[in-house]
Amino acid sequence: MRDDAYVDVQLLNITDLHGYLQGPAGSDAVIQGAGGVSYKVGGVAAMGTHLQRLRKGRRNSLFFAPGDLFSGWEFDSAAFADEPTVEALNALGLDFATAGNHEFDKSPSFLTRHMMEGEPFPVVGRDTGFRDSTGQPFRGADFSYYSGNVVRSGSGQTVLRPYHVEYVQGGPGNRRLPIGFIHLTVVGMENMPGSYHPGLRTLGDLATADRCARELKARGVNAIVLCIHDGASAGDDFNSGSNPFGPAYDLALKVTPDIDAIVCGHWHSRFNMMVPDPLGVPRPFVEAGYHGQVINEINLSLDPTTGKVVRDLTVSTSHPNTRDVPPHPKLKAIADYWAERALERARSPIGRQSGPFTRVRNAAGQSTMGDLAADWTLWAASTPVPANDDSNIHPFLPAQLALVPLAPQDGLPVMRGDLVPSADGGDTVTFGKAWAAIGRSSPTVSVTVTGQQIHDALEQQWTKDSAGAVRFAPLAVSHNVRYSFNSAGAVGDRVDAAEVFIDGAPLRPGADYRVACTSRTVLGLDGFPALATHRRPYRFERDCESFIAYVRAQPMLTPSPLKRVTAYEKKRRSQGDRATVRTGSAGR
Asked: 3-class secondary structure for 327-357?
């Protein structure tokens, strides 16, 4: 058969945009190509122009992404519930997407009912439902999200459709030919800090992909593409690949030969290569960077009679999303509009403060910023999530106390900065100041633990490094907790349970308590393993939105005296015991 008798299909894909409408800054804005050539990349305005040129003259062209398109770290989009990203993706003509872990950062219903269908909640114009660059209310995505392996913990039902079929023109009599797309989210998504969800779980990727491929084949679909939000690493050249490794690569070597191409995300890598399927036949294996750096293009040739991919004719090329092109007018207008709105939102007042909150700690490990974080955390875990939030499987139980790492042994604290009055002495707290002070885009979580576990977590504030030096990683406690510790005691024996009080009552090691903390803490990621074993976890709102709500709800934010924790020294001497209360301050 002549090459021109085949049906040509263009597959364009990006991944891990994370709301970077303006494009990234710093090192993320520069990528390396063949021969070490550098390219300055990023931004949806440039991407619109590149996509327009790539699509020109192509009858069958599909544009898609394997996840993490929204939710992340860009204020321009995140401050508006990531609606700006969806507006930009609609304008770019995205056809469909795989759900990544970050698409689940809020709740399954936020993805399905708000981002996909446009339903605003809870407060229109404040939390969601913002006016877009045309002045219209947010309408939702013009494309659908899919995932074959994210299921409900209780029922086992998938949250999204597992796969779908697109049709291209060009068969005999100009009939349509089907191409199946299987979608997978990174396994373990539900136990990642941002997308932590007690009400969800993920199925194995290999078994799910093979099952979906069998179902597609049974429906007469002979061309299949796997879109997986999991990745690999394969060198620094965005348009080649070398020494690949990672979970997506392991999957690529094993998944059924019925799959003709594998498009990845999640690892923020850039590679474009062919890998052998289990029968030794090469197929594309690609990942298109992150933050809008690269557009990958896979060109398939389909047999017009059978609809099968002619693998020998498959070509894959990655294109840098360079900024040296005229910006696409519509996309530039969208990016500029949301940048201006973000500046306005950052300046908007949301509360008042009577004094400074700083991360400077005293000798007992307390700080005014830490106390504020603990009080907000307890507040956040005191009421159930709204009915439209379907994140949980266990019923709500109000938290009784909060524990928040101020300087975790691993990772970063939830406090990102200080919250201090403006230079002119004004007491206004703006949206931008509050956003910059607290929040890592992770939810607050409450869990049931025993009093003994609380005691053990307090003991775990002190550890020894390999050289035997003692490290202090203090926990902030909510306003209703008081405790003392012996700074001269052995590591693991500094806190007496009888000296820990919750709401004025001594801690009971055998009793159950409801503790509020960060998702990282309950996952055992920040150095407090005593709390990683828990019961009945319940997820609340993300910290960045929740703290904004807390500031709005308070008549005045007032720094509290640093009296929640008392440190003393008690050393055994031949003449008896001697206790000394420590005072003073320590650094951050």
From this structure: CCHHHHHHHHHHHHHHHHHHHCEEEEECCCE
In a 3-state reduction of DSSP, which class is residue 163?
strand
Structure tokens at 568: 């003393």
DSSP codes of every residue in 283-333: EEEEEE-STT-EEEEEEEEE-TTT--B-GGG-EEEEEE-BS-SPPPHHHHH
Question: Which residues is 405 bridged to in the sheet?
Answer: 475
Structure tokens at 319: 């294109």
pLDDT the model gives residue 175: 84
pLDDT means over runs of 10, the chain (588 residues)? 80 98 94 93 98 97 98 92 98 98 97 97 92 97 98 96 96 85 98 97 98 98 98 95 97 98 98 98 98 98 96 98 98 98 97 97 96 98 95 97 94 94 88 96 97 98 93 97 96 97 98 97 96 97 96 97 95 50 43
Backbone phi, psi, residue 282, to 5°: -65, 150
Pull the structure tokens for residue 330: 């519509």
Token reading at 308: 């099968």
- What does DSSP assign to residue 189? G
- Give CA–CA dist 225/515, Å, rounded: 45
What residues are paired with 535 via a beta bridge? 448
**DSSP string for 505-567:** EEP-TTSEEEEEEEHHHHTT-SS-GGGTS-EEEEEEEEHHHHHHHHHHH-S-B-PPPS-SEEE
Residues 255 and 274: their CA atoms lie apart, in Å, by 14
Spatial separation of the C-alpha atoms in residues 488 and 394, rounded to whole Å: 42
Show the tokens assigned to 548: 């904004």
Q: Tell me the backbone φ, ψ of residue 369, rounded to 5 degrees.
A: -70, -40
385: Cβ–Cβ under 8 A, 6 or more apart, which residues? 107, 391, 392, 396, 539, 540, 541
Greatest distance between any 2 Cα atoms in the chain: 103
Closest CA to 307 of 389, 217, 232: 217
pTM over 0.85: yes
Residue carrying the six token digits 């122009």: 49
Give the single-character DSSP code of 436: H
Q: What is the pLDDT of residue 422?
A: 86
Q: Could you report the per-residue pLDDT of 222-253, keeping only the tens digit for each?
A: 999 999 999 999 998 999 999 999 999 999 99
The H or E element spanning position 86 is helix 83-92
Nearest in space to 587 (alpha carbons), one of 408, 360, 406, 371: 360
CA 309 – CA 307 distance, rounded (Å) = 7
Strand, coil or helix: what is 263? Answer: strand
Q: Are 404 and 526 in contact (CB under 8 A)?
A: no
Say if residues 180 and 130 touch (Cβ distance below 8 Å).
Answer: no
Rounded Cα distance between 413 and 173, Å, is: 63
Dihedral pair phi/psi, residue 55, rounded to 5°: -80, -20
Which two three-digit tokens encode residue 200?
A: 């969800």
- Residue closest to 442 by CA, chosen among 518, 528, 521, 538: 518
Taking the alpha carbons at both ends of the chain, their separation in whole angstroms is 71
User: Hey, is 371 helix, strand or coil?
Assistant: helix
Helical H runs in 164-275? 205-218, 247-254
